[in-house]
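Hi there,

I know you've been waiting on this one. I reran it after we fixed the sequence typo, so this is the corrected version. Both the input and the resulting structure follow.
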Amino acid sequence: MWFVPFALHLILSSTNSAFFGMALNQEQIKLVADLEIEMMSDMYNRMTQACHKKCVPPKYVDGELSKGEAVCLDRCVAKYMDIHDRIGKKLTTMSMQDEQQMKQMQMGSISASPK
């Protein structure tokens, strides 16, 4: 999934680290990893609830999923994961663009400062 690279990119980015004066250590890396696990767990729970509500009737007739329910769940999960992936890629792209803009601003302020 995109969460770990995206969060690590934001927190561990050399530009952001230098800009905010952050010293990277094991505790911060563990915090990021724990956040990623929490975010993935939340996404999984939301997907499970949404797809179950959409595809499985509230009153069970059979102990097994019908073919229609199984197909519905499969499509629902595929769509949910596709959108999740698209959003992650878009956020990563936006983050990289912001980082490039910050670098350009820093370079502009360095060259513009009197010597």
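Quick highlight: Helices lie at 3-12, 14-20, 26-55, 67-112.

Best,
R. S.
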